[in-house]
Amino acid sequence: MINALRGMKDLTFEESERFVHIVTTAIGISKKYGYSYIETPILEETKLFKRSVGESSDIVGKEMYQFMDKGDNDVCMRPEGTAGVVRSFIQAKLDRRQNEKFKFYYYGPMFRYERPQKGRLREFHQFGCESFGEASVYEDFTIIQMIGDIFKALGIGYTLQINSLGCPTCMPPYRQKLIGFLTECKEELCEDCNRRIDTNPIRVLDCKNEKCQSLLIDSPKLLQNLCNECDSDFKKLKTLLDKSNIAYEVDSNLVRGLDYYSKTAFEFVSNEIGSQSAIAGGGRYDKLVEFLDGKATPAVGFALGIERIMELVKMPKTEREGYYLGVMEEENIDALFPLASKKRVAQKVTVEYEPKKLKAHLKGADKVNARYCAVIGEDEMKNGTIWIKDLVEKEESIINQSDF
Question: CB-hemisphere CA count at 13 Å for 189?
Fold first, then answer.
């Protein structure tokens, strides 16, 4: 027997219904905020992610599904969605339309080769949004507000954590302060943190090692080293959240796992899914378009992990809908299809091909959760009628097939 690969799984039955409910809910809300759909390829050039996500990140260093294709191209399965959207944005020359604003939503599979565990698969799915051309912190707030609306609609509780990652003005001097601090205690830091001191010291703040975290308590804090603009934007973000009664925590060690973020960074976390507590995250990445050879364009976005929230989602009560059609004699089956075709213009229709007694048809209608069970028996066929039962109101009727 051939099974699915480790860390990859099928979505069927209740899980697939939950998946579709999450995606359709998120799409509906993002459209209300002015976002339109974008689809990017699953397979991209590896250098796209090396340049955007960062070679020092765990994603690029350890987790990418990377290979040479038959044309000797270095390619990989996308590990995240933002870089592909930015590449598409530049390729379509939207970065040259400097006075316009663009908002895109997307969803689909991402791939990272890491140890599978609850809420973390090697093939996983994300829903995300990317906003281009708006530099105002009001857009950062609006994105956070939209995610809150999505989780509210899905019935999910969360804690919002925010931070500022500074900008090219305030980050370099802070980076040097942090390197100085880390160098003094490097012998006590884990192997990954020692490697990051030289490649990307900010990522040390995100280390999950308890000993490293205890050492970082006294580290210099970026929030205390922001330039005037970043400090003003972060204070404004907090004011907007306060006025909207959106609860949040300031986490000075929140850096996200990708190198392209600057200024606002945020995560929505849940204490109901074990160690993998982040259920959505994002922030501002004003330099990424320029980094990928486009014209400088401010941008902000987020992604939420669909698998991580599936168990938390409260599914709406499923109402009976549509029709179940059946016959009691085999020779009458052909009569069902013209009726089904007309009903399918506006209704869900299930056709049972096997002739059965009425009681069996009623059970069949129950199994597919149909609102109406419609059956043609010998008498109905002779008279050109059809028997119908409303399984909600428990009412029966016989009508002409032409009126059905």
Answer: 24
The one-letter code for the residue type at 78 is R
Number of H helices, E strands in the chain: 14, 16
Residues 6+ apart with CB under 8 A from 346: none
Enumerate the domain spans of the chain: 13-170+226-312, 323-403
The length of the chain is 404
Rounded to whole angstroms, the Cα distance separating 264 from 220 reads: 18
How many Å separate Cα 394 from the centre of its chain? 41
What would the two tokens of residue 107 be? Answer: 């969803």
Q: List per-block mean pLDDT (blocks of 10 residues) for the chain, which spans 404 residues.
A: 94 93 98 98 95 75 89 96 97 95 98 84 96 97 98 95 93 90 86 83 83 86 93 97 97 77 93 78 94 95 95 88 97 97 96 97 97 97 97 97 94
State residue 274's pLDDT score. Answer: 65
Q: Which pLDDT score is estimated for 240?
A: 98
Q: In whole angstroms, what is the distance from residue 231 CA to residue 158 CA?
A: 26
Best CATH choice for the domain 323-403 from the list 3.40.1170.60, 3.30.160.150, 3.30.390.50, 3.40.50.800: 3.40.50.800
In single-letter form, the type of residue at position 67 comes to: F
Tokens found for residue 143: 């994105």
* Nearest partner of 300 among 314, 287, 313, judged by Cα: 287
- d(CA 79, CA 122) in angstroms, rounded, equals 9
Residue at 190: amino acid letter: C
- Rounded CA separation 202/197 (Å): 8
Nearest residue to 222 (alpha-carbon basis) of 268, 265, 281, 163: 163
C-alpha to C-alpha distance for 36 and 56, rounded to whole angstroms: 32
- What is the per-residue pLDDT for 118? 75
Q: How far apart are CA 184 and CA 172, in angstroms?
A: 19
Helix (H) or strand (E) holding 139, with range, is helix 137-154
CATH superfamily, region 13-170+226-312: Bira Bifunctional Protein; Domain 2 (3.30.930.10)
